[in-house]
Amino acid sequence: MKVEFYGHVRQYHNIKSEIDRNIQTVLESGQYVMGPMLKQFEAELATYHGTKYAIGLGNGTDAIWLALMALGIGPGDEVITHPNTFFATAEAIWIAGATAVFVDCCPNTKCICPDRIEAAITPKTKAIIPVHLYGQCADMVAIKKIADKHKLKVIEDNAQAIGANGPGFKVGELSDAATTSFIIQKNLGTFGDSGALVTNNPDIDTQVRRLRNHGSTQRNVHSYGFNSRLDDLHAGVLSAKLKHIDAWNDLRRTWATRYTAGLKDCKTFDLPVALPGYRHVFHLYVIETKKPEWRDQLVDFLVKNGVDAKTHYSIAIHKQAGYPWDKGARVVGSVSNAEANAACCISLPMFPELKPEEVDYVIAKVKEWDGQHAAQAPAGKGPAQSGSACKHCS
Ligand SMILES: Cc1ncc(COP(=O)(O)O)c(C=O)c1O
């Protein structure tokens, strides 16, 4: 059997008529950029999040740095995040001209550890960017408390967790803005690139709308800006798909439960931790090997046996070659949880259109490898999850 990592074409086939209808509507409208389909999708996205505004953008990276720019954050300013996220989170800070400050993640959730943030705050600190990594929200209540105390802005990088929420909070509710990516592999993905920002702040809405369109909200009238628009064809695809996102996330959660039940007795790796009270939407189902050298061995074994496993993200940002490329960057304190996450992470196939027999095949192959190595497995948790759990991740 072959089990792919993504199910883009299956998803297209399942709702082909709805997607095709929206594409046809756009093609026949003659309005492909900043047209009615974009307006419709932005309204639907704002309603979905329960925010006042949603702005369609060129991609999820732009969404982050446009948010920073709209908040007046740039050269001379520091922005705190964690180093075990996709590179774009830090890249966006650097594009805005600010300094990226890295603190560790929690050992269980892999999201930024709120207990590490205050030690990194200086007079230059202007914002925190928590990433809802793998589909589970960071502890936004704790992060907001710190931000309020130090008068900092918060931008949620929600590229991986559309439809997730935390105990008593929704994404976009406890921050200045939340950004997302719609690149195809995301939980809500289009057939190409795009992204969005949601906010309740009218100033951010006005600024980002202006910045995304060459500094213009009126024909021929410009100020400094860029081109970062979500075009109407992609908006049409996304509008069709948005109606299914909750059901698709439920399916991801079902497959995650099946993986966890099937793999719970394995000895060579730790399973992902889904916190009670959080809706984890499993953008990725990430196991962590108890020995770093086992990561690539297990991935190779799975790939050879037809299972397309991957790693997210196997090199922490501060360990990338050439870091920090003459950009402003600081690592504060130990980031051993993030480094161990990078060293040990393996993502198993995860998409809503998986079939039960595919999930069971993945489980069987992982168990086969585990059985061959269990005798060498250290007791207790592996390095990625053995750091002391705090109140935010246990
Ligand atoms: C956590 C995170 N932030 C930012 C991005 C950037 O989004 P994009 O690729 O649409 O620029 C991604 C995904 O690609 C991501 O996973």
What would the average pLDDT be, to the nearest integer? 98
Biggest sheet descriptor: 8 strands, mixed
Total helix count?
Answer: 12
Which ions, cofactors or small ligands are bound in this entry?
pyridoxal-5'-phosphate
Which class best fits the helix and strand makeup? alpha/beta
- How many β strands by DSSP? 13
Shape: globular
Q: Helix share of residues?
A: 25-40%
Low-confidence stretches: none
Head-to-tail CA distance between termini: 37 Å
Radius of gyration: 21 Å
The proportion of residues in beta strands is 5-15%
The SSE order reads HHHEHEHEEHEEEEEHHHEEHEHEH
Task: Explain this structure.
The chain has helices at residues 8-14, 16-29, 36-49, 60-70, 88-95, 140-150, 202-211, 232-242, 245-263, 292-304, 336-344, 356-373; strands spanning 53-57, 78-81, 99-102, 125-128, 153-157, 165-166, 169-170, 177-181, 195-199, 269-270, 285-289, 329-331, 345-348. With 394 residues, the chain is an alpha/beta fold. It has an 8-stranded mixed β-sheet, with helices on both faces. Strands 10-11-13 form a 3-stranded antiparallel β-sheet. Strands 6-7 form a two-stranded antiparallel ribbon. The radius of gyration is 21 Å and the shape is globular. The model has no long low-confidence stretch (mean pLDDT 98). The chain binds pyridoxal-5'-phosphate (PLP). Residues 59-61, 85-86, 88-89, 131, 157, 159-160, 181, 183, 193, 195 line the site of pyridoxal-5'-phosphate.
